[in-house]
Amino acid sequence: MRVEEMLRMIAGAFVVASVLLGMYVHPYFFWFTVFVGLNLFQSAFTRWCPMMTLLRKAGVRD
After folding, report:
1. Structural domain boundaries of the chain?
2. Which of 49, 46, 59 is nearest to 11 (CA)?
3. Per-residue pLDDT tens digits of the chain, which is 62 residues long
4. Is the backbone of residue 42 left (phi > 0), alpha (psi -120 to 50) or beta?
5. Distance from C-alpha of 6 to C-alpha of 51, rounded to nearest angstrom
């Protein structure tokens, strides 16, 4: 899997997990959903995402 596909998969998993945690554990977990969304939003303009850096260091190919 390439960096772009892996990034989308991880972001989707984070959103689903944080919504479920916010519903069933504590509403503060919704702030993590906001964080993921804002990070995706800024990466659309800057073409940089911290998770992409981590994935490349982990050896995921471009």
Report:
1. 3-57
2. 49
3. 899 999 999 999 999 999 999 999 999 999 999 999 999 999 999 999 999 999 999 999 98
4. alpha
5. 10
Q: How far apart are CA 58 and CA 41, in angstroms?
A: 24
Both tokens assigned to 52: 């992409």
Phi, psi angle pair for 6, to nearest 5°:
-65, -40
Place of tokens 């993590």: 32
SS3 content of the chain, % helix, strand, coil (to 5): 80, 0, 20
- Nearest residue to 11 via CA among 56, 34, 47, 29: 34
Question: H helices then E strands: how many in the chain?
Answer: 3, 0
Distance CA 19, CA 54 (A): 24
